[in-house]
Design brief:
Belongs to the IspG family. It is an enzyme of class 1 (oxidoreductase). This protein is α/β, with parallel strands linked by helices. It is 43% helix and 17% strand. Helix 1 crosses helix 2 and helix 7 packs across helix 8.
Length: 430
């Protein structure tokens, strides 16, 4: 299916205009809290966001998790607002975050009753920086239209942007039925999956245009079309990007647990990001019991950094190991250094501008160790099994020292700290 075959002529394809940063040209949307603003689209760097999985009625626990996600690098954090009790606690969550000097914008996730909650709890509407609306979960017919209009009117009143997020698990049944009926009359009907994808795109764009008709600025709208299969997501977003210039939120919904969720999300998002599609991303990982929610933030950052789209923390290059490296020394050192660099970034980010672009190599033997270490900003080549127990260190391509003994890890970390200070520390001029 191509965009030009769309069943709705109002959402025809447009030429894709790529900006200077390699991103498709989209409208800028500002998501604000206080004096802090995060721009989505309009040539801004791709924004990383996440979502809490705490009970929103537990204000302290939710604020703590929001803080943890923000510290990990989530530039917006979404919270569930599903009951009157949850809506009542949103201002308290915001106040707690402000007391902790956490200025990350909060996004309210609404389904079914968002129009009621935002109307009945104006303090909640004001405390949120953005609303997430799913038109497929707002009833049917005139009821849906009225509920949607009510939420948009509140967004206009408080000058809040919205994400209109359609999802194939809750697609507007009336629209889908109409699409299937129209498709059955075609001389060559599309496959049902193609009709569903087109319905998602048409639903997102038509609701965005309705929001504009109701008074919402076109610079206050972000769109998403969430599905859970890689090829569907790629096709839907390629089509969506060709038909509108709203900024797009990317994410594979219900991606799954562990490596499956990471691989599937990366496979889908990497294709789209490489094509300049996507202005903000969320990696929807199912956490293991007791797992760290911030893992999805780290995965999102690593996708963007691996693709050269953004830099968040120094990258560690390490070999996979083989029969030459039966010792686990290089594995332990690589893990320790990577964890150390990530822990330091909240302090280093302001103190050492540019340190996030640093490359560190921790290699396990002489085969590729010296070469990889020379190519990195700073690197160490540890001895493999049966090799001379010495570890040359390379700084900016030059061998500077050879470490020996039991304190190699501590000595190398000290060398990294010194390098960061010398290379990225602010120079004081007279």
């Amino acid at each position: 299916m191509s965009s030009t075959d769309s069943l709705d002529s109002s959402t025809q394809a447009r030429p894709l205009a790529v900006g200077a940063a390699g991103r498709l040209n989209t409208r800028p949307v500002q998501v604000r809290w206080g004096g802090h603003s995060v721009q989505v689209g309009g040539g801004a760097p791709v924004v990383v966001q996440s979502m809490t999985n705490t009970d929103t009625t537990q204000a302290i626990a939710t604020a703590i998790q929001v803080k943890e996600l923000a510290q990990a690098g989530s530039e917006m954090v979404r919270i569930t607002v599903n009951t009157p009790e949850a809506a009542q606690e949103v201002p308290a969550i915001r106040e707690q975050l402000d007391r902790m000097n956490v200025s990350v914008p909060l996004v309210g996730d609404f389904h079914y009753n968002g129009h009621k909650l935002l109307t009945q709890y104006p303090e909640c509407a004001q405390a949120l920086s953005k609303y997430r609306i799913n038109p497929g979960n707002m009833g049917g017919g005139k009821k849906r239209d009225d509920n949607f209009a009510q939420m948009i009117e509140i967004a206009c009143r408080y000058d809040k942007p919205v994400r209109i997020g359609v999802n194939w698990g809750s697609l507007d049944h009336e629209l889908m039925a109409r699409k299937m009926d129209e498709n059955s009359k075609r001389s060559t009907p599309w496959p049902a999956q193609a009709v569903m994808r087109d319905a998602l795109v048409v639903s997102a764009i038509s609701n965005a245009r309705r929001a504009e008709e109701l008074g919402l600025s076109p610079n206050g709208i972000v769109l998403s079309c969430k599905v859970s299969h890689v090829q569907d997501l790629i096709t839907v977003y390629q089509d969506l990007a060709s038909r509108c210039d709203y900024p797009l939120h990317l994410g594979l919904t219900e991606a799954g647990m562990g490596s499956k969720g990471i691989v599937a999300s990366t496979a889908a998002l990497a294709v789209l990001l490489q094509q300049g599609i996507g202005d903000t991303i969320r990696i929807s990982l199912t956490p293991e019991p007791g797992g760290d929610r911030a893992r999805e933030v780290i995965v999102a950052q690593e996708i963007l950094q691996s693709m050269g789209l953004r830099a968040f923390t120094p990258m560690v290059v390490a070999c996979p190991g083989c029969g030459r490296t039966s010792s686990t020394v290089f594995q332990e050192l690589a893990d320790d250094i990577q964890a150390y660099l990530r822990r330091q970034m909240p302090v280093w980010k302001d103190k050492y501008p540019g340190v996030e672009t640093m490359n560190v190599a921790v290699m396990g033997c002489v085969v590729n160790g010296p070469g990889e270490s020379r190519h990195a900003d700073i690197g160490i080549s540890l001895p493999g099994t049966g090799e001379i127990p010495s570890a040359p260190v390379f700084v900016d391509g030059e061998r500077t020292v050879t470490l020996k003994g039991d304190a190699i890890a501590q000595e190398f970390q000290a060398i990294v700290e010194d390098y960061v200070e010398r290379r990225y520390g602010r120079k004081v001029t007279a």
